[in-house]
Amino acid sequence: MPPFPNEVRSILNRVMGSSPADLRLMAQRLHDHAVEERMPADEVKSHLAELGYGNISDFCKDLELPAHVAERWERFGVSSEMKQVFGMLIKQRKKFADAAAEFEAITHMGLMDFLRSRGVL
C-alpha cells in the first residue's frame, strides 16, 4: 500500500490529537458544508452584483482570497453561513446608501456622486 500524502497524514494527525469537543466542531463543520443547503452560484453572483461586483472572481480577488475559492464558489455555490454574510453586507450597503442620500438631501454636497466615482456605491 502506498504511503499517505503529507496533507492526508497532517489531517489524520490533527484528528487523532483532537479533543472530543474539537471532533464535535469538526463534525458540525462537515455537516454545514456537506449537508446544509448551499446558496447556488447564480444566487451568489446576484448577491455580489448588488455589492458592485461583476463576478465571483473579482470579489475573491478584492478580498485577497485564493483563486481556488472563486472556482469552488462558481461550481458549488457557498455555505449557508456565507449566504448570511452576503445578506449582512448587502443590508449594510443599503443602510450606507440611505444615510448618504439623506446627507446629500440635507447638504446638497453631491456625496452620492462622489461615493459612486470612488466605487463605494
List keywords for this structure.
mainly alpha; 121 residues; 73% helix
Descriptive account of the structure:
The protein is an all-alpha fold and 121 residues long. The chain is built from 7 helices and no strands. The protein has helices spanning 6-16, 20-34, 41-50, 56-62, 67-76, 80-107, 111-117. Helix 3 (41-50) packs parallel to helix 6 and helix 4 (56-62) runs antiparallel to helix 5. The chain is elongated, with a radius of gyration of 21 Å. The termini are far apart.
Low-confidence stretches: none
Summarize the helix and strand pattern as letters. Answer: HHHHHHH
* Total strands: 0
The coarse silhouette is: elongated
What's the average pLDDT? 84
Structural class: mainly alpha
* Residue share in helix: over 70%
DSSP summary: helix tally: 7
Strand content: under 5%
- Cα Rg: 21 Å
Tell me about the largest β-sheet.
none
Gap between N and C termini, in Å? 57 Å
Helices, strands, pairings?
Blueprint: H1 6-16, H2 20-34, H3 41-50, H4 56-62, H5 67-76, H6 80-107, H7 111-117
Task: Summarize the model shown.
Helices cover 73% and strands 0% of the residues. The chain is built from 7 helices and no strands.
